[in-house]
Amino acid sequence: MWTPVIMLLLGGFTIAAALSKYNIAKMMATFVLSKAGTKPRTVLITSMFVAMFASMWISNVAAPVLCFSIIQPILRNLPSDSDMSKALLLGIALSSNMGGAASPIASPQNLIALQNMSPQPGWGVWFFVALPVCIISILLIWVLLLVTFKPGRNTTIVPIRPMKDKFTGIQWFISIVTIATIALWCASHQFESVFGDMGVIAIIPIILFFGTGILTKEDFNNFLWTIIILAAGGLALGKAVNSSGLLHTIAGSITEWVDGMSLYGVLVVFAALILVVATFISHTVAALIVLPLVQQVGQGMSEPHPNLLVMGSVLMCSAAMGLPTSGFPNMTAIMMEDSQTGQRYLQVKHFITRGVPSSLIAYVVVITLGYGLMLAVGF
């Protein structure tokens, strides 16, 4: 149950805890949003990209919470049934989901994908494939929200003020350690002889932040241990399914079924399958169930491309966002209430009418642009 992947998850949680605790994430996000001005469409796209970027580094569980707290002044000054507030909340939730695919530590399913890929791609390769897919998907979702909500109509927006605080020494230290760790993760293949694995690099922020007292025992106890145990349990389950031969048997029958289909055909089928599964159950659990299977089927094809199929499937895992229960960002968004009236901003229908098309948009981007990029990096 203990692998370098779990260590990477702990390193990611440590960085996220430091960025949140010392308000670095909030200062960066408010600074960017303060530049967005008061045009509804600009505010919407800026908020969406801030949510995506935050999801990459402080997990897509904490990112929407952070973004929702920053846009509170905008929400408070809009009428309770305003389309702009619906578009903003939904835009942030959908972008946080997409941001969950953008970096290897953004969400647990990415770490499960790394576990099922050999050779494991470095961070640079991951960014090369995932970032264009996420950015194009978010731009298309933004257009969808503009067309369906028309948030610009009779909407006046209060500009967000940047925080006036100066960066302290501790904040500089945290920022430098974070950037250095991410840079090492990106170049982990070049430093293999020094560090051995990405999991070892993850120990750097843990020692520097906990060892200096920047983070305390309480912060350690507040980590999402349920997610870590879930990932560890999933790895143990994967080992069991593999060593017992069950995975081999199931994958064998699926390989026969997809026999004669092109690599592209298999990607289209698996991406659709995981999109449906991950919409109804948690993204992480969907990845735990489907990714080992995808890897085995990819291995068994006449021209094996297991990494391409796993990467394509895990991108779709994050893009499953058709229901309020699909992923943490959606659950957080549907809980948001108007402070004056106590009514919820979003209903289930908003997710079905905007979230399902958004998932399909992302699906098309993954099987077109994503497929091309994955072939380009040699998956």
UniProtKB/TrEMBL annotation:
It comes from the Eukaryota. The chain crosses the membrane at residues 44-75, 126-149, 170-188, 194-216, 223-241, 261-294, 306-323, 360-378. Keywords: Membrane, Signal, Transmembrane, Transmembrane helix, Transport. It is a multi-pass membrane protein. The keyword Ligase does not apply. It is found in: Membrane. Residues 4-311 form the Citrate transporter-like domain. The keyword Electron transport does not apply. Residues 1-18 form the signal peptide. Its main location: membrane. InterPro entries: Cit_transptr-like_dom (IPR004680). This is Low-affinity phosphate transporter. The lineage of its organism: Eukaryota, Fungi, Dikarya, Ascomycota, Pezizomycotina. The gene is PHO91_2.
